[in-house]
Amino acid sequence: MYDEKRAFRYCVISMVIFVVTILIGIEKTEANTELKVGTYHCPPFIFHDKSQEFEGLSMTLWLRISEIMKVDYSIQNYELDDLLLAAEKGDIDVGVSCISITPDREEHVDFSHSFYETHLAITVKNRGYLDSFISIITNKTLWKALGIFFFVAISVGAFYYFLERKNNDKLYSMPTKRGRLAEAFILGVLFITKGPFNYFEFKTLSARIMTVLIAMFSTVFIASITAILASSLTLEQLRFDVKGVNDLSKLQVGAKQATTTSLLLTDHSIAHETYPNMRELLVALDNGDVDAIVADDAVLRYMIKQGKAKEMFADLVVLPYQLEKQNYGLVLVENSEYEEEINRALLQIRETTEWHQILLEYFTEK
Fold first, then answer.
1. Are 119 and 322 in contact (CB under 8 A)?
2. 52 dihedral zone (left: phi>0; alpha: psi -120 to 50; beta)
3. Based on the domain organization, do 172 and 233 belong to the same domain?
4. Which pTM was predicted?
5. What pLDDT digit, counting tens, does each position of 205-252 carry?
6. Which domain holds residue 49?
7. Helices 297-309 and 278-286: angle between axes, nearest 10 degrees
């Protein structure tokens, strides 16, 4: 009888311990379901509304994922590099923004499946024919080249005038001195542009000898002036006819700092100015501080669309040329215990009609 009571007592104690262990486990599980989410300001994927609540395409996606996973979360905003570092150190569980999946980043953090595919694009300021004409005629290189040309033409004309004015009535036939000086200038222009006159047009030996020497000089001179003007005018044309990344090498280019865009331009040896955010980058282009900017196509189109609604960026256009493709994913801690669950939820959301409607809402130009 005593043994039966003892066994019963042990059984009750064991059950109590088991129940307490289960309850503690449940309590710990519930305590650990709040995930730490890091964000990075990148309209239209992440931005603050007027009440300082986080909104955007990526936040909408994360809201749906958290509902499917049935988890709570807290949010902290970072700069891009700080967000990636926080994920690498395990200070956050998930990074939510417009973060490109790249091999370099994969060495330090993990990513979810891609939730948005895009590409880098070039944006320029669209100018009319009048602006193009004004830009060309105000080109400093053009006026410098013309100044050098007229200086040389006057010098050549003056040289022959002093050698031939008393002996050559054919070249200097005007009755007045002013007229003969005008003929000297015309002679210099024609000599430089059309090459030397007939050797026997000149009466003095000095003029004939210099004719040969200046003839060689004029050929090189005209070729140099032509090259300078062609390069300058071609550069002006490129400002309105950029077709790819290689056309950017001779322009003033802008990009957002610490992004894959800046890395791409550096890899192509394209010097560029960097700006801390997209707004300042677009303002720089609109003000003429740079000739072209390179950034994510979706972000460019959204920001320009928002600007036009506020009567800004009216002349900015995104060119229809795709540069490097980009895939955006959620940033995860390496070997995250939530990775599989997040990916399942993400794929489930991407297949819904609601998700496609959200994409149209953000990116369809009105």
1. yes
2. left
3. yes
4. 0.61
5. 777 677 767 666 766 777 777 776 665 554 444 445 676 777 788 889
6. 33-115+329-363
7. 70
Question: Are 81 and 43 in the same domain?
Answer: yes
Helix (H) or strand (E) holding 279: helix 278-286
Which domain CATH number covers 75?
3.40.190.10
Taking only the tens place, the pLDDT of each residue in 73-106 is: 999 999 999 999 999 999 999 999 999 999 999 9
- Three-state secondary structure along 194-249? HCCCCHHHCCCHHHHHHHHHHHHHHHHHHHHHHHHHHHHHHHHHHCCCCCCHHHHH
**CB-side exposure of 159: number of CA atoms within 13 Å?**
17
Query: Are 187 and 263 in a shared domain?
Result: no
Cα angle value 77/265/102 (rounded, 5°): 50
What is the DSSP secondary structure assignment for residue 250, as one 8-state letter? G
| Number of domains present in the structure of the chain | 3
* 3-class DSSP string for 69-121: HCCEEEEEEECHHHHHHHHHHCCCCEEECCCECCHHHHCCCEECCCCEEEEEE
Over its C-alpha atoms, the chain yields an Rg (Å, rounded) of 36
Q: Say if residues 122 and 301 touch (Cβ distance below 8 Å).
A: no
For tokens 């200038």, the residue is 185
Residue 51 lies in a domain: yes
Count of H helices and E strands in the chain? 13, 13
d(CA 293, CA 297): 11
